[in-house]
Amino acid sequence: MSRPPAAWPARRKLICVFVGLVVIGGAFASLNWYSRKTQPLRTGVKTPVEKSIAVSHPSNPGYLGPQSCVKCHADRVAEFQATRHFLANQTPKSGNMPGGFSPEKGTYRVPELSLRFEMSESKRGFLETAIHQTDAGNRSTSSAIAFCYGSEGGNDEVYFAWHEDRLYELPVAWLAPSNEWGSSLFDRHGSGDFSRDMTIRCVECHNTWFQHFAGTRNRYGHDNFILGVTCEVCHGPGHEHVTFHSKNPQSKDAHAVARPAQMTRERRMDLCAQCHSNALKHRGPAFSYRPGQPLDESYVTLKPKHPEEDHVANQTTYLRQSRCFQQSDSLTCVTCHNPHQTRSETNAGSASCAKCHSNEDCTDRNQIPAEVQNNCVGCHMPEGRKIQVFFRTETDKYVAPVKRFEHRIAVYPDARNEVLLEWHRSQSGPESDEEVARLSKLLGENWRKESQRLQSESRYLAAINACRESLRFEPDPKTKEKLEQLLKIQTGIDTDLQDGLWYERNRRYEQAIEAFQRVLAAKPDHVMALGKLGTNYAVVGKKELAVESLKAAAVTDPDDPYAPGMLGWLAYLEGRSEEALQYFQQADAVEPYSAKIHYQMGLALSKLGRRDEAITQFTKAFEIDPNDVNSIREQQRLLGTGSIKEPK
Ligand code: HEC
Ligand code: HEC
Ligand code: HEC
Ligand code: HEC
Ligand code: HEC
Ligand code: HEC
Ligand code: HEC
């Protein structure tokens, strides 16, 4: 659920040529939202554009909420209320908030920074207060919690607050597995308030409907939402269905409702892939996907190279890699999971394997003790930590609180060893003792080797996780040392990156360049550092180096629009409009719903004399972001004075 490189948008006006670069840079940076790291709070700092133009208020397309289904599907609604889907977003109530809000547990001190947070319950409700010690004295900002994600789910819980009509994610989260507070990484050059935008995709995946104001990062209707992942996410807006069946009580044919049982396998997969995948980049406005449609028409699905770069647990991708999926023509998520009921022994669990396999299918069955033979999941879908969601705690760094079940169903020798180890631990006798010692050593060693392999690929986060796994089995001091070393490297990378961005904001480009180079010395495939290095080279006039670095970024992560966007802009500034257009199109392919990129394509097309196509692009930009005055202005210019072509 979280992403490495966070992007801190550049905010200051820079030297001439750089103004253009920063406009792009800022835009792309803000698209890189999907990180749990913080961005400085921007409440109150409205851009002139946002001030001057009215926001558009989309109306609810017919979402009613689960209560409207009770009349005719009472049992279903009743059982559904216990599911994590129903509970995915809740308002804070004394009954669903963790012990961390008690006075004894309510403080979290951020190590190494003069910053602490206090979490409390008061007359204003549940509060998260940031107290920043500065030279001028303490500065404190208090936010009343409006929403909770993951509440009572036993993993991490994240909180949100309104500031006027903007929603922000608060920086301190509750880590239920270790019963402590944790935080995202802080920008040590941050402005003092540490929350970050609650972005559209973050809202879509945990809710049924929010009124999102088009073109804004985080403005939503204050009292116009349906919380949690409820019926209509999978069955479509219910208004027409409910109206019809209320008027026609005799009709038994389901009217105007998405019926997953009738969908093709791919559309049934899409139903869950809406959220359980890396389908992250919009092709259209918020909440416009409808069950039964191809998901690809609404989102671009990113393809990170490594599991630690996933945005969520991404069961969709891994399930597809299983022979179970590939060699069956019907297997989907709902073969094993009944989405209306909470997870249990019989809903998923090893029971789900029996739908297709007999016990004898397991060629290992006769080699393993009878007591574990039915733990199919333990050996074939082992739990592991998803390091991409990590926190800082008072005592540790890069802590991943969450474990997930591997959905690439396969044979995992070490998972088998672990199941056997657990079993031997529960036995007594010298034979089991020996096996415990042997298996612990083996597992410790294997994870240590895995850690080395990951480190050699400069995948430090994953290597940190592997070291910790190794230590679970074998508390070897050398491994501990290794872990400390890896934590230091990763901390260095994050610190250098923050420094680089700070130098850039403060126009100290040479120092920015050095900082990004330090990042790349540790991690040569750090895409953000490659991109930013390129930009800073461009600003100081080292054009060849700039292009080289940006091209490397574009190749390293084809899912990141930053580098092609910047290459396009450089080409555009130098009058190579054809080349610029190609780069902008490349950026558009991964970020199709960006007003900025459409605006830039419009500029390039306009320069190439392709007036009508340019107008189409400016209109598109304006449709995505009604606040985009630049596109409106350009469109007007091409159309001749006075007229504006309204978006469809
Ligand atoms: C006034 C009664 C009524 C209300 C309210 C109602 N439904 Fe239905 N629904 C029906 C009837 C009648 C059927 C068709 C018979 C059946 O399948 O049970 C049906 C069928 C369905 C089906 C099954 C289609 C299939 O695959 O067989 C789904 C899904 C469904 N409703 C969802 C909802 C949701 C979601 C809501 C709330 C937003 C809702 N219904 C509210 C009456 C209602
Ligand atoms: C693409 C969809 C998607 C987006 C975007 C998304 N989530 Fe989630 N989130 C999920 C899914 C799915 C789960 C369930 C666990 C899993 O399968 O990864 C989840 C689980 C969680 C949990 C429960 C604890 C846990 O880890 O299981 C929290 C808290 C959470 N997300 C916070 C966030 C926040 C904060 C954001 C926005 C910054 C966000 N999520 C964005 C899909 C998403
Ligand atoms: C996460 C997705 C999801 C959510 C949320 C969801 N459903 Fe379903 N629903 C499905 C799927 C998938 C099927 C088809 C199951 C199958 O093929 O066996 C289904 C089938 C149905 C059916 C028809 C078949 C049956 O089992 O009766 C009804 C009625 C229904 N859902 C109503 C509801 C209602 C009411 C809610 C909310 C209380 C709801 N659903 C929430 C995914 C969902
Ligand atoms: C709109 C987004 C969304 C859709 C669509 C969706 N999920 Fe989820 N799912 C989530 C989130 C978010 C969570 C985690 C909620 C939490 O723990 O707070 C979750 C949790 C789960 C869990 C864990 C439940 C548990 O008890 O731990 C399962 C299993 C699951 N989803 C299966 C499915 C399946 C199967 C489908 C498709 C039929 C589906 N989901 C569709 C967002 C979604
Ligand atoms: C072959 C059966 C099977 C299929 C297919 C399957 N799952 Fe699971 N899933 C499981 C089992 C087993 C567990 C973990 C043990 C349990 O609670 O039953 C699990 C756990 C989960 C969880 C809980 C979070 C975690 O990992 O801790 C989520 C979310 C989930 N599955 C989502 C999905 C989605 C989305 C799909 C489709 C892409 C899917 N599953 C397909 C069997 C399956
Ligand atoms: C929809 C049917 C279906 C379900 C449900 C299912 N499988 Fe499979 N599975 C298959 C098919 C088909 C194959 C490939 C043929 C074979 O090896 O038997 C397979 C293959 C496998 C393999 C061999 C994988 C490899 O890479 O060699 C394992 C292990 C396995 N399944 C375990 C499981 C477990 C554990 C579960 C429950 C969590 C499960 N399966 C659920 C259909 C299914
Ligand atoms: C203690 C670990 C363990 C447990 C428990 C276990 N398996 Fe296996 N399973 C294995 C191993 C190891 C193999 C590969 C053995 C080999 O290479 O011959 C295997 C092989 C398989 C295969 C693939 C056979 C092939 O075609 O290559 C299937 C299918 C399978 N298991 C299903 C299951 C099911 C279903 C269960 C639960 C009833 C289960 N397993 C329980 C460890 C386990």
Topology:
Layout: H1 16-31, H2 48-52, H3 70-80, H4 84-87, E1 89-90, E2 107-110, E3 115-122, E4 125-134, E5 137-144, E6 147-149, E7 156-163, E8 166-169, E9 172-175, E10 180-183, E11 196-197, H5 200-204, E12 207-212, E13 220-227, H6 231-235, H7 239-247, H8 265-273, E14 279-282, E15 299-301, H9 315-320, H10 323-326, H11 333-336, H12 376-380, E16 383-385, E17 403-405, H13 413-426, H14 430-456, H15 460-473, H16 477-505, H17 509-522, H18 527-539, H19 543-556, H20 562-573, H21 577-590, H22 595-607, H23 611-624, H24 629-639
Antiparallel strand pairs: 1-6, 2-3, 3-4, 4-5, 6-7, 7-8, 7-9, 8-11, 9-10, 12-13, 14-15, 16-17
Helix pairs in contact: 1-20, 13-14, 14-15, 15-16, 16-17, 17-18, 18-19, 18-20, 19-20, 20-21, 21-22, 22-23, 22-24, 23-24
One heme C binds at residues 84-85, 87-88, 150, 153, 205-206, 229, 233-234, 271-272, 274-276, 333-334, 337, 339, 342-343.
